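[step 3/7] fold_predict: job queued, chain A
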Amino acid sequence: MLQEQTLDMLNAMKLFGMAKGFSQRLGDPKHGELSHAEFTGLLVHDEKDWRDNARLKRLLKNARLRQQACLEDVDYRHPRGLNKQVLLELGNAQWVTAGRNVLLTGPTGVGKSYIACALGNLAARSGHTVFYTRAPRLFESLAQARGDGSHLKALARLGKAQLLIIDDFLLTPLSEAERKDFLEVIEDRYARAATVLTSQCPSKDWHQAIGDPTLADAICDRLLHNACRIELKGESIRKNGKR
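[step 4/7] structure written:
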């Protein structure tokens, strides 16, 4: 009866990891030899592990990553100009904390989105908030937000993510409203939060594709400054099931 009451109280206090550990450890004979302090210490570890796992699940769910991707699964055998050392360095999430950008360019099918999602997975597992979106969907949602009066709130949400992943940037030239919105997004994040960008358009052509020279200068300056640039090339690897 006392054990059931203890479990009820632990769950009532939302100490779910401790409650689960309490049930499991009471049924393990070897834990009968532990002191009260040792047993309590293990329960505290159980609670911390449960909370860490719950936070990771929440971060990954909120990230809305397009693909389940890991840096460990990236295929380096396909000739696409991918430098393994660069990705190994990005395997340390300090670039997220430092607010650095990662720019992935190259033709369709060379694995840009997969690598971007793998970086997002890494960031989430390091405890950072992540949000993934495709550029066309981003601009569509901001246009809708402008219409219903939630535009500033939408921009604020994008600015709060510790890592923002924008996939398929510049599939088409930007409109005037899209240029202004994109500058606001990048300005809010400049030197404060990290952004991963993928594009089929080479970075040398971004200025022209953005359109307005003044806004293009401002956008490119903030995107390219101190950024890690990964320029991929070659044929599509999708038909081979590689990443």
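[step 5/7] annotate
The mean pLDDT is 87.
The first helix runs from residue 2 to 12.
exit 0
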